Amino acid sequence: MVLELLQSLSEMQLVGELTVLSLLIGGIIMAGGIITAKIAKLLFHKYYAPSLPKDTAQNISKLIYFGILIVSFLGFTSSQGIDLSGIMVAGGIFAVVIGFATQSVVSNLISGLFLIVEKPAKHGDTIDLPDMGISGTLLDIGTFSSKVRRFDGTVTRIPNDKFFTSNIRSLTLSTVRRADAVVGISYHSDIENAILVMKNEILQTMPFVLQIPEPEFRIDELGDSSVNIHVFVWYPKDDWSQAQPILLATLKRALDNASIEIPFPQRVIWSGKD
After folding, report:
1. In the beta sheet, which residues pair with residue 235?
2. Are 155 and 142 in contact (CB under 8 A)?
3. How far apart are the C-alpha atoms of 54 and 147, rounded to whole Å?
4. Domain range holding 219?
5. DSSP H/E element including 72
6. 45-103 per-position pLDDT tens digit
7. In-domain check, residue 186
């Protein structure tokens, strides 16, 4: 019974050599490919994606899914006896034309693959792109572009080719970071006493500042109106708000409490007499 049904279906021609049976087989191949692609995608997300960066997992998942679909489509065309040689020649010519018209798209695609392989930064990292004046949290490295959420809450989309070729400064990879500030004291003030006062104030009122390495003080410049002292402190990377934003205020409070002058710009004028 089944064999007779298959025989009848094979004899029912639709267009040219295309029969109902071959079309049915092709449909089964495509349906099987779609089901296989979805199962492979689910298995990848369950067993492998958790150990990979989010953006990398997303891109690999897309490659697996669409790769299986392409293989299934090729199997479908083969089952229908379709000759792809002419289509491939025409497709090659069309690809050259499209390639010239979409160079930036191809560049973004290739740059995205390089970013996934090299991994200069991953999802959730805080980064700084000094060439573009962009700082914030990396949200995603997509196929053609990447997204960064700036510190003001806005999201910036960056083409992958620009992102890949720019200088990327990671603020997350290191476990500690350094904050610095410059403060000036008057020329008649005791430098050693000023440094001791500022150091004690930092250690007493800024608990997130590390004691090893300890705060560092350098005489940065003998300015026109002041002796400028450059102060460096180290702190855990996640405690930026407890270091850099309040460092200058802490230094000023220490100098004010010790009655050490922070001078205004001033000039000494000599007048000649006959």
Report:
1. 177
2. no
3. 13
4. 176-257
5. helix 54-79
6. 877 777 777 767 777 788 888 888 888 777 767 666 665 555 555 556 666 656 555 66
7. yes
